[in-house]
Predict the structure.
Amino acid sequence: MLDIETQPLDAFWGSLGGPSNDECHLALVDISRPTRHSGLAEGAWRDVLCGAERTRLDAFKSAAAAWEYEASHVALRLILERCLKIPASKIQFRRPGVPFQAPELVDIGSHAIKASLSHSGRFAAIATSRSSAVGADVEPLSRAKDAYEVVHMFLCDEELACLAEMSTGRRMAAALRAWCMKEAVLKAAGAGFQIDPTTIWLNIKHPGVPQLTSIKAPAGDLALSVCSAVVPTRPEALVALAVEPTIRSIQVSCLSLEELVAAASLTRTCWQDRRSAREQG
Ligand SMILES: CC(C)(COP(=O)(O)OP(=O)(O)OC[C@H]1O[C@@H](n2cnc3c(N)ncnc32)[C@H](O)[C@@H]1OP(=O)(O)O)[C@@H](O)C(=O)NCCC(=O)NCCS
């Protein structure tokens, strides 16, 4: 049974740095653009990004899309810094040379960890696990109509029949849930659209309940537990997570980028204080 627990930031941040193997962490980060009144200056944390990320950032034509990319990648790196105890700017990803392949963390030695990033408008979802494949997806609820219009692209015949039995009002919400959960499954498999989403079966009648599914991933068959939820404090977003069945609990926290930056800064100060204390004596 998969236990989903929403935690305040300090408890979440504490367990994120811990060694637990049977839990997974999911941060839902509000990456709204900073306003004049927020404590976070736009661009202030850009220096944690690597050369490839900055090149990609420079290529965006839309300022909103560039910010979404920058903020979500900064958030991913700060979370990984906490998990790996490696400075965010030193974390390296192997970027695949082929389409649809997952970016992979490299040179993380004994601190093996898997991570998944999703970003969409105001939100980034970042999942991490020390033992399991993970896939996260976040979608604004406002995209339900878009998902419903292309259901034939990602639902199998059985799921389409199930959708047809639903009331009109429920269909769009069910389509978005299925979209979000299938994206999470495809990302946990690390293959994106190398896998046809219509080959994945989900019980779309009860999408709020964690369920088991299996997928033929490039590295072999993979069993996954998948769930989706609207977190009450962030009712505009739907988030989905896929993990291996060995994971017993999911720790979820909703935070703003500003809060994440503050928590990371505080942790860095503690590490520096400890290092100076060790050096002095
Ligand atoms: C990875 C994929 C599955 C999801 O991408 P997406 O929904 O567009 O975007 P998300 O924000 O959720 O995820 C993007 C992040 O996933 C990661 N990613 C990319 N390829 C990945 C893969 N094969 N496996 C796991 N993670 C992957 C990257 O960190 C990427 O971030 P970046 O683009 O800023 O570098 C992609 O293959 C895709 O093209 N999706 C299209 C969406 C769609 O039509 N879905 C139909 C419903 S199932």
About this structure: The chain has two domains: 1-132+250-281, 138-245.
